[in-house]
Design brief:
The complex is a heterotetramer, with 2 copies of chain A and 2 copies of chain C. Chain A is α/β, with parallel strands linked by helices. Chain A has 12 helices and 8 strands. Chain A has helices at 2-9, 19-43, 60-69, 84-89, 94-101, 135-149, 167-179, 198-201, 226-241, 270-278, 281-291, 297-320, and strands at residues 76-79, 125-128, 155-160, 183-189, 192-193, 196-197, 218-222, 247-252. In chain A, helix 2 (19-43) runs antiparallel to helix 11 (281-291), helix 2 (19-43) packs across helix 12 (297-320) and helix 3 (60-69) crosses helix 9 (226-241). The longest helix of chain A is centred in the N-terminal third of the chain and has 25 residues, at 19-43. Chain C contains 11 helices and 14 strands. Classes of the chains: A alpha/beta, C alpha/beta. Chains A and C meet through helix 6 and helix 7 of A and helix 3 and helix 4 of C. Bound molecules: thiamine diphosphate (2 copies) and magnesium ion (2 copies).
Chain lengths: 342, 342, 325, 325
Amino acid sequence: MSVAHSVEHSPVKSETVGQVERDRLRMMMLIRRFEERTYQEYTKPGQRIGGFCHLYSGQEAVAVGIAALYQKEKDYLINGYRDHGHSLALGMEARPAMAELFGRATGCSKGKGGSMHYFQAEVGNIGGHGIVGGQIPLGTGAAFSCWYKKTGGVCFTLFGDGAINQGTFNEALNLASLWKLPCIYIVENNHMAMGTQVDRSSAERDLAKRGSGFNMPFRNVDGNDVDVVIEEFGKAVDRARRGEGPSYLVANTYRFRGHSMSDAMKYRTKEELERARQRDPITIYDKRLRERGFIDDAWVESTESEVRSIVDDAVKFADASPHPDLSELYTDILSENYPLQK
Amino acid sequence: MSVAHSVEHSPVKSETVGQVERDRLRMMMLIRRFEERTYQEYTKPGQRIGGFCHLYSGQEAVAVGIAALYQKEKDYLINGYRDHGHSLALGMEARPAMAELFGRATGCSKGKGGSMHYFQAEVGNIGGHGIVGGQIPLGTGAAFSCWYKKTGGVCFTLFGDGAINQGTFNEALNLASLWKLPCIYIVENNHMAMGTQVDRSSAERDLAKRGSGFNMPFRNVDGNDVDVVIEEFGKAVDRARRGEGPSYLVANTYRFRGHSMSDAMKYRTKEELERARQRDPITIYDKRLRERGFIDDAWVESTESEVRSIVDDAVKFADASPHPDLSELYTDILSENYPLQK
Amino acid sequence: MPEIQFREALRQAMTEEMERDENVMLMGEEVGEYNGAYKVSEGMLAKFGPRRVLDTPISESAFSGIGVGAAMCGLRPIVEFMSWSFSLVAFDQLYNNAANVRYMSGGQFKVPVVFRGGNGIAHQLGATHSHRVEALYSRVPGLVVVSPSTPYDAKGLLKSSIRCDDPVMFLESELMLNDRGEVPEGDYTIPLGVADIKRAGDDVTLICWSKCVKMCLKAAEELEKHDVSAEVIDLRTLRPLDMPMIAESIRKTHRCVVVDEDWGYCGMGDGIRAKIYDELFDELDAPVARVSSEEVPVPFNHHLELAMQPSVEKVIAKVNEICYR
Amino acid sequence: MPEIQFREALRQAMTEEMERDENVMLMGEEVGEYNGAYKVSEGMLAKFGPRRVLDTPISESAFSGIGVGAAMCGLRPIVEFMSWSFSLVAFDQLYNNAANVRYMSGGQFKVPVVFRGGNGIAHQLGATHSHRVEALYSRVPGLVVVSPSTPYDAKGLLKSSIRCDDPVMFLESELMLNDRGEVPEGDYTIPLGVADIKRAGDDVTLICWSKCVKMCLKAAEELEKHDVSAEVIDLRTLRPLDMPMIAESIRKTHRCVVVDEDWGYCGMGDGIRAKIYDELFDELDAPVARVSSEEVPVPFNHHLELAMQPSVEKVIAKVNEICYR
Ligand SMILES: Cc1ncc(C[n+]2csc(CCOP(=O)(O)OP(=O)(O)O)c2C)c(N)n1
Ligand SMILES: Cc1ncc(C[n+]2csc(CCOP(=O)(O)OP(=O)(O)O)c2C)c(N)n1
Ligand SMILES: [Mg+2]
Ligand SMILES: [Mg+2]
């Protein structure tokens, strides 16, 4: 039934039964592959990727679940700096995504934004943002534009478990609820803010309760099960589209990699990691689709090699792409020419 | 029993039965008189008081209730800009209080702070503060110093119903609860932020619930009844002194005057004001003390004229006081002399 | 031409642009039912309704970011700060988000939002409520900073700012809202990035903006009596700066005083003076002088508050100093 | 003298001062269990325990204000910003509270708090994480701003800052934390408000601080080969500024270049240059030049990022320009 539900929400039109589900699993696999290859590229000698780089491995079900509900012609999505997965899920090609990490002119932000600042205007991807919590008001503003223009669109506003301790969280959630803006506030709770466990950053350990004071729905969601994500987020999206206002959802998940590349993860035990592997969103969904008879070994193998070649191609593309011309330093700052007479 | 309770908390030692209560009523009357005279002085021709000026008339039970629980040698109090009442309740003389409004050198802040910035270091009055919500972290810091030094002291951190919509509210309450700091967060809910009713500023109309996500006690308190304030705040203070952490209290009250002097109060009906007058904290407490046989007409009359003459004297004092010397412009900026070798 | 108040000029600009473009809307504290803390938006809620004129909670970070985010998504918000001093609690939203989103996205987004409100020292509001923010925002690539001195300029510049596709910090002055001046009814605009000679002169160039323009004009009158002819340039836009007009004037006068209500060190005045030194060093017959506020927090006492700030007398004294008279 | 890293020098300063004064403590993001995002506070939690070394949530406004409030109440907090860029979300707590509380209370409170962390452009962190905040804070009366360039200075200046009764903004650089230098074990301090001549010279004065000092020393070496003798002044304290030392140098060289990693307009470099023009105009044989970053948001691409910033080459070119060679 979550399938039915998701299909009803999904912009993807499925010719054959199970196609929608296979596409979702494929996207999770592509994201995973993209991130793991990024890890290799970043850490290998003669490093061609620089700056902060935050990998999404382990959290794929959230981005892919959102993509199932996302309506490109009217919705928006905004995120923190852990933004590769969502961008791919919303349809960004692997080439401009990888090229951005390499800082090349062919990157999704022309090499000016980097890993933390993926943008894709034509699908409403209003960006990855580096300042923790800084994107929450921006996402609320995107939702405001939907409300103002009565488009029926919503804004998925994502942030981490550490970001709820920023002031913008309180200000934006209250304002969105007061104005009934179609904003879906999503905490991707991977239980760590850099090296800080949630119980050392939030006095209230149940992060759903952190959203209890705003007169809007708040609840925990299993962020490792894409069907649950679609089901639960779907209710909030329907509500927002109906004009009944925002919701606050905590997607509980896990990041397999360190916070960023420099993180030695001393705070993490082998056992914890093993437990997490048991709930790997890809494993969970793979198992389910096999049970449903939607996939088999052959499909998985061919998809594995497909996503591998897509990412290989993206790396080749990025590596072959030119650096931005030095003149690019001075472009894209202002939209107008001054003096400005209008 | 609330009396017993409050005595147990009160630093005031009473010789005769009812003395503590009479002192509290007297203080409420003094604050009211001070504020009403300030109103006259501000609005009369040849105005000698300038700048923003926010009167406390109607909210006296909160400040006087706090004073009953306040231990001068170790507690702290911080507030917004509506700060005359609390300062008087903590023992500031009417003279330096009024002189500050006149901007004179004899003012509690040497005429440099004005109405919004009353300070009295020796009693732990760490100030009135003009930026809405800006004082919440400072008060949390004062509570931190009590925690760090293990003094058993607490910090009363006051702010308005509008201030809970600042980001500092979320950040400070979470942090104080996480660290179990002895901070008493008090919303003086007079139901208006300037011209904005609470139901137009907070999505959650029950302001107590705005504090529900921090794993700390939160509740509404009748802010017009000084005995209830002492009783309810007392529990939070005891808890904090025991090292069990902060509490969040909403004192529901009313301001009889406008937000500041320029406020025409178009948002308010005669009927609303009349209903509020029925719950005037002074009337309520006056009635109760009469019932208890603690006061009579004679006492009220003499106290009326006493506070009147105290305030008259304060105005004369302020008016006769010198303006700060122009050299004062350059003092009190830094504590050290530079170059600084230490 | 009808004579109207500065606040009415601002209101006309907002009203006309909202009538002209459905995507323009106004939000801020008390802008609606209260008709504006300083009555700038009086009647606008009644005229446009609660969808286009929105009262916000006291949440500057949220509603500043909402303005930026909505601008990224096709609206043209006008965000009122009750005072620019309160923008400091939303500083990151302006300094980072408004200014950088276009660049970081490789030019995929424009950010047509106007932030406006009273800037600078008013009347005994104390240290926290009297900030002059021009230098804080004028230094930022990606932002445009405008600060008018007359009702006429205010209307024309605000209309241009609302039509501008870049984030504009529009700095008014609470103390000027009652000023009256001739303002045409209906549509006209004043270009952004163009200064205005409010008074022509030959001996010395007085550079100023906002509240200090009146002060400089008074000083110029006084100086005239002593045969010093001062040219008064009202910058109107602080970023981008109209250097061509400044240069033309200094090539004529060879002397210049910048009048800045802010603290001196690393302030607007220093930024302008540095540009002048860099471009016109050989034209100068004297140091480019600055009259600014004393480097102290703004005191409450009114005498101290006045003593802290630039004044007609201080401007005249400084002019005499650099004219070696 | 032992050679140690910049980060170790900082750690020694904090550790020694915490041993010396029970009221000194450290708080910030990841300073404890994670041993510091950049390992500056490594081992300090183990040594001092969770009461004196506190990990904070990502709540800069709260813990900055806690630092100020605790300082008003007798503690001497050290507050670490993982990056000074993140101080922008707490801007009001520093710009208003830390700076004004003493003045507004008529001198009743002192505010002995140190805010410290990495400032400026690091390595491909992008526009929002590469802010240079020296001008933002150096302009504020009530604040002290310090920015060391060597491990030796870092330890001595940080100890002085911790003992200082005023709020100190201590600006480090992530890119310098691995730098090694000789640092005495045990106690010594370096005065606040005193610059340091890192290299003596006669022909031109190079004014710099933090990361740019190394750059200027390299440039001076190159210039030496072409018979230009450059004096390199490391300001060390940006507010209050050591004008006497600057003046003495310029009275000797009559030429000056200020090297500032920030944007030029209304930046630190302009503030310093303005003071020089005001005090030393007649001593100058050429304009006081500035080498600063291009006026653009900091780009991610490393080539662009480097092209944006000052460099040895740019400094040399500017020196040659003002020496008319
Ligand atoms: C205002 C601000 N403070 C600090 C940082 C540094 N920082 C970057 S990510 C991060 C941890 C955030 O954790 P969380 O919100 O849980 O997101 P996650 O990384 O787990 O996805 C911190 C402290 C920042 N970027 N912005
Ligand atoms: C950050 C900030 N924004 C706006 C203001 C202007 N302002 C001063 S008081 C006030 C209303 C506050 O109402 P509330 O918090 O309920 O306190 P009350 O005045 O009722 O005591 C506003 C908007 C300010 N001082 N600071
Ligand atoms: Mg996390
Ligand atoms: Mg109120």
